[in-house]
Amino acid sequence: MKKKNNKKIIYKTKDKSELIREELGINYFTEKETPTIVIPKSKYPKTTIYNDIDLNNWKDYGDIITDSLWLLGARDKSGAHSGEYHGNFVPQIPHQAILRYTKKNEIVLDTFLGSGTTLIECKQLGRNGIGIELLPNMVKRAKELILQEQNPFKVKTDIIEGDNTIPETVENVKKILKENYESDTVQLIIMHPPYHDIIKFSDNSNDLCNTKTTEEFLDKFSQVVKNTYSLLDEKRFLVLVIGDKYSQSEWVPLSFYTMQKVLENGYKLKSIVIKNISGNRAKRNAEQLWRRRALGGGFYIFKHEYIMFFQKR
Ligand SMILES: C[S@@+](CC[C@H](N)C(=O)[O-])C[C@H]1O[C@@H](n2cnc3c(N)ncnc32)[C@H](O)[C@@H]1O
User: Fold this and answer.
1) Does the structure show a pLDDT above 60 at 54?
2) How far is the CA of 134 from the centre of ligand 1 (A)?
3) What are the φ/ψ torsions at residue 305 (nearest 5 degrees)?
4) Ligand 1 mean position, distance from CA 44 (Å)
5) How many domains does the chain have?
6) pTM for this structure?
7) Which residues contact residue 75 at a Cβ distance below 8 angstroms, ignoring those fewer than 6 apart?
8) What is the atom index within ligand 1 of the atom nearest the CA of 135?
9) Residue 79 main-chain phi, psi, to 5 deg
């Protein structure tokens, strides 16, 4: 019998803090592991138009998060996933989004591909994936990592090197869609843009991290949403992953500003999820320093970022 590649997030053995979370009704998801349960196929599956979740067996999907607070455990390091790219997201994010908002063999577009986390996850979950990335060295690295991942479902992945704010790049996506998938559209868009200038990804003037002001950053981001709108099927989802920044003694809510840009461009808001940011050992000393600054400066230290879910009207 063919071995299933499904993965499952399992609850780890409970410690004191987890018991407290449980009492508060907050789930804590640890890293993904091989599934212990294989969901039986029902004779007449009851699914929505945008995923394969069989509502007849809804109690069996314990690994799919439905709460708006995501306390994720360690980064998933299965397969080719690695945390090497400073600024990549944890694979659990595209994992959850893909399971919730696509069916097997559909097409996911990631407009800020970076090191290719989304496309690696696509291969693991049996979805086709297209990524756009500006930086040639990142495109090269993403290709290497994606190639390292096994392809049990025989899906396709494509990377387009280019600036996602210009129409030519979208034309290239259209060309790939036609040639490789005989399609004009994708079924899910994931956007994980730079959080403005928090991380300097490059000196490239087209890199959103090099925009001079918040307004310019938002204009360019808005352009990406506009450019890709026609690529997404009706009623399908766009997922935005973003955090806020702190500048000149002010909290700059990039998340809510970018959310507004998506809403202005033909989408409705379905959910705002708050996800924990957990520091590593190396950051612990810096954390003490930040705590001192926070106490003196009258602000709170970022411990969360946002995952926003929109549906095309
Ligand atoms: C936050 S990172 C995405 C990381 C990705 N989710 C991952 O897991 O590796 C943002 C990426 O957007 C890319 N980027 C910035 N401006 C861009 C533009 N105008 N067009 C295409 N990519 C761009 C950066 O080079 C960077 O790799």
Assistant:
1) yes
2) 7
3) -135, 180
4) 41
5) 1
6) 0.90
7) 31, 81, 83, 90, 91, 92
8) 25
9) 55, -130
Residue at 222 is within a domain: yes
Query: Residue 289 Cα, ligand 1 centroid: separation in angstroms?
Result: 29
Residue among 185, 169, 189 at smallest CA distance from 177? 185
Q: What is the mean pLDDT of residues 21-43?
A: 57
The verdict on residue 2 lying in a domain is: no
The enclosing domain of 283 has a CATH number of 3.40.50.150
Residue type, 259: M
Instruction: Print the domain residue range for 222.
Output: 8-312
In a domain, 37, yes or no: yes
Residues within 6 Å of ligand 1 by CB: 85, 87-89, 112, 114-115, 117, 132-135, 138, 163-165, 192-194, 201, 206-208
Q: φ, ψ for residue 294 (rounded to 5)?
A: -65, -40
179-191 mean pLDDT: 98
DSSP string, 94-144: HHHHHHHH--TT-EEEESS-TT-HHHHHHHHHT-EEEEEES-HHHHHHHHH
CA distance 156 to 138: 19
Nearest CA to ligand 1 atom 18: 163
Q: Tell me, yes or no, whether 3 lies in a domain.
A: no
Ligand 1 centroid–CA 111 distance in Å is: 8
Q: 112 CA to middle of ligand 1, Å?
A: 4
Substitution site in 161, 201, 209 for ligand 1 pocket (most atoms within 8 Å of beta carbon)? 201
What does the mean pLDDT of the chain come to?
89
